Amino acid sequence: MRATVIHGAGDVRVEQVPDPSLREPTDALVRVSLTCICGSDLWPYKSMGADDAGQRIGHEFLGVVEEVGSQVTGLRAGDLVVSPFTFSDGSCDFCSESLQTSCVHGGLWGTNGTDGAQGEAVRVPYADGTLVKLPVEPDSELLPALLTLADIFPTGHHAAVSAGVRPGDTVTVVGDGAVGLSGVLAASRLGAERIIIMGRHTDRTDLAREYGATDVVPERGDEAVERVRELTGGQGTRSVLECVGTGESLSTALRLARDGGRVGYVGVPQDGGGVDARELFMRNVGLAGGVCPARSYIPELLPDVLSGELDPSRVFDHTTDLDGVPDGYRAMTDRESLKVLVRP
Amino acid sequence: MRATVIHGAGDVRVEQVPDPSLREPTDALVRVSLTCICGSDLWPYKSMGADDAGQRIGHEFLGVVEEVGSQVTGLRAGDLVVSPFTFSDGSCDFCSESLQTSCVHGGLWGTNGTDGAQGEAVRVPYADGTLVKLPVEPDSELLPALLTLADIFPTGHHAAVSAGVRPGDTVTVVGDGAVGLSGVLAASRLGAERIIIMGRHTDRTDLAREYGATDVVPERGDEAVERVRELTGGQGTRSVLECVGTGESLSTALRLARDGGRVGYVGVPQDGGGVDARELFMRNVGLAGGVCPARSYIPELLPDVLSGELDPSRVFDHTTDLDGVPDGYRAMTDRESLKVLVRP
C-alpha cells in the first residue's frame, strides 16, 4: 500500500510500504477514509535530521474496519471508526481514569513500528480500547467534522478544560492555528462569555469570530499583554489557552492570566522555556494541560458534531489525495493553508 | 516601642521605633501578644544587602486590639485577633473571590512603610478586611496554635488544596520545615490516605508521622523520585506539595507527581528554575499554588484548632522574647530550631 514517510526536514514522500496485517488478537485493520496534516507534524518537517529509512507519519484518521483480531469484541468489519491520535488498551489504571495518553501499553501513531495515519490503511493495536465507532454512513458529509475528533477538537477542548473554562468566563486563546481555533470553539461550547483570540491572519481570526471569539488581538509579547489587560479592566482573563508551544508563547500566556487564573496548555513545548514560578507565585496563576487524552473526550464531543450543532471542520481549507501530501506540508509551513484534509 | 529591624544578611536588631498610631479611619492598632519567625524571613536574613536604615520584618501575629479607626465596624478595643500575613481591604474583586493576596489595596507586613509583626504593636490597614476575631481569652493555651493561622497552617493547606488533595489520595510533601509539616497536617485533614514526607531530620519527620505521614523518604533529587516511585507501584503520587522554594525542589516535585497529578507549590521561588513544560506535557502534570490567601482559609481552619482536634503549634520548638529574636534567626538558619515563637 502507499503511505507518507518523512525522511528529514522538508523531505516528506509518499511511498510503497508493506501492507499492514493483524499481529495481535486485539488488533484491527482500518482502511483510511480521511486523514489530515497536523501542526505538530510540521515540527519534524522543520527540524528532523536526515533519515534514509524514514519514519511513517500522521496521527489523525477515520476509516472503515476491514478485519478484526479474535479478541476484538466491540467492532467488526464494515464499522466506520475514528481513532484518537494515540492508541490505548482501554483497561489500565490510566485508561480507567480517562488519561489514555498515559496508557501503560499505549503509544503515538508512527512511532515504535506502528503505522502512521497518512496512508491507505492502519493496523490498530488494542482496537477496542482505541477506536470509537461512528453512527453515520461512510459517505456522510459529516466525515471531515468527525475527523477533527481524532485530535484538534478534543485538544482545543482539553486546553479549555485544563484552563478551567466555566460559563460566563473570560478567556484568551494564544494561537490562531487549527488548535487555537478549536480552542475558541471549545471555550464557547463551555459557555465562555468573552473570548479574546491572539492572531494576525484575518482569515483565521474571522473564523475565530464565527466560532465565538469576541475580540482579536494582533499584538504579541508585552504589547499583547498590555492590550488584553486594557480589554479586561487591567486584570487579564481568568482562563488562557496556550495553543502554540514555544517558550515565548507560554510565557505570554502566563502573563495574560488574571490573578488566580489558569493557563491550559496543549501546544507541544518546543523548548524548555516560558515558565518562571516567580512570575506566577504572587498571582496564584496555575498551569495545567499537556497531551490531550482525546479518547476520553470523544464521547462527550461526538453528539454536538453529529447533530451539526458545531462544525469543527471549518479549519480544513485545502483537500488533497495522498500524492498531494508533500505539497500540503509545504503549504501549511508557508502558511498558505491552515489545515490540509487528505482523502487517500 | 521596640521592634525587629533587619539591616542586611545576618544583621537583625531589636530597636526603638516610633509608636504606631491610627492613620486612616479603617486602621486598627494591635498590641502583639504572639509573633514568630518564618522560614521566608530567613531568605533576606541570608541574602539581603546592607541597609543602614533597615527594614521592619515579621508577618505573623496575634494580639489585642487597642484602638480602632472611625470606619472600623467589626472590631473594638479588647478584641483578640489574628492577622493573616498580608493585609487586604476585604471588598475588592479579588477579596470577594477569596484571593486576598491579590487585593488591589493590600500588601505584605513590613513593606512600603507598614509595620513588621516582630514588634510590640502593629498598625493594621483595612482592619475589617484583614483581621479575624478569635473567640478565646487572651491567656488561652490555644494561642500558639491560633498563631499558626497567620501563615503556616493555611499555607500548608493552600499547598494541599492547590495540589487537589482528596479523600483517599496519595500525597508527597517536599520539605520538612514548618510549612511542609503543616502541609502534612492539612493533607491528612483533607483525607489523604498515604502521605510521604521527604526529609532527613528525624525530629521533624517524627512530628510528620504524628501529623499523618505514612512514609519518610530521606533521599533527594533522582534518588527521591526513584524511592517514591518504588513506594507507589512505579507511578508517583497524585498530589505533591512543594514546600521549599528552590528550582531543584520544584523540579523534583514535578517529577514525583503521578501522570495526571498536580503539584501545589507554596515555597517562595528563590530562582526561576525548576519548571520545564516538556517534562510535564506527556504526563499531564499540573502546577498550581503560590502565595497563600490565608485570610480566606482562616474561617475554615479555625474550628479544628479551637476544638483542639488539630494542633498545628507543635512546629514551635523554641520560645523567646523580643531580645531573643536575633538569636532565633540564627538558630533557625543553623537548623537548631524548626520555628521560634516570640512573646514580645
From TrEMBL, chains A, B:
<feature type="domain" description="Alcohol dehydrogenase-like N-terminal">
    <location>
        <begin position="25"/>
        <end position="135"/>
    </location>
</feature>
<dbReference type="InterPro" id="IPR013149">
    <property type="entry name" value="ADH-like_C"/>
</dbReference>
<dbReference type="Pfam" id="PF08240">
    <property type="entry name" value="ADH_N"/>
</dbReference>
<feature type="domain" description="Alcohol dehydrogenase-like C-terminal">
    <location>
        <begin position="178"/>
        <end position="303"/>
    </location>
</feature>
<keyword id="KW-0862">Zinc</keyword>
<dbReference type="InterPro" id="IPR013154">
    <property type="entry name" value="ADH-like_N"/>
</dbReference>
<keyword id="KW-0479">Metal-binding</keyword>
<dbReference type="InterPro" id="IPR036291">
    <property type="entry name" value="NAD(P)-bd_dom_sf"/>
</dbReference>
<dbReference type="Pfam" id="PF00107">
    <property type="entry name" value="ADH_zinc_N"/>
</dbReference>
<dbReference type="GO" id="GO:0046872">
    <property type="term" value="F:metal ion binding"/>
</dbReference>
<dbReference type="InterPro" id="IPR011032">
    <property type="entry name" value="GroES-like_sf"/>
</dbReference>
<protein>
    <recommendedName>
        <fullName>IMP dehydrogenase</fullName>
    </recommendedName>
</protein>
